[in-house]
Amino acid sequence: MKHYPPQFKADAVALYRSRPGASAAQVARDLGIYRATLLSWINAAGEPDERAHGSAGDAGTSAGSSVQAENRALRRRVAELKEEREILRRAAKYFAGETKW
Prior knowledge:
Layout: H1 6-18, H2 24-31, H3 35-45, H4 63-99
């Protein structure tokens, strides 16, 4: 059985919560872990899933509000990608250290 550092677990849960369109299976596959493992970390975090309280977003009747909505969506996506990159960087560092003798 593999032992994952607490920071990796917290980052994996944060990644899952930051990707509302992704399933636990997709996030787990991206991180190279089992879905059940990720789900157990999510349950252990004890925080409510933000997806249950997700905002529908503004429909935007004017061009200004639609641009603002698009900017918000793009900023969320950029933050998500930065977080994913950092998690993958940490995972690569962790696994590289694990292979050294």
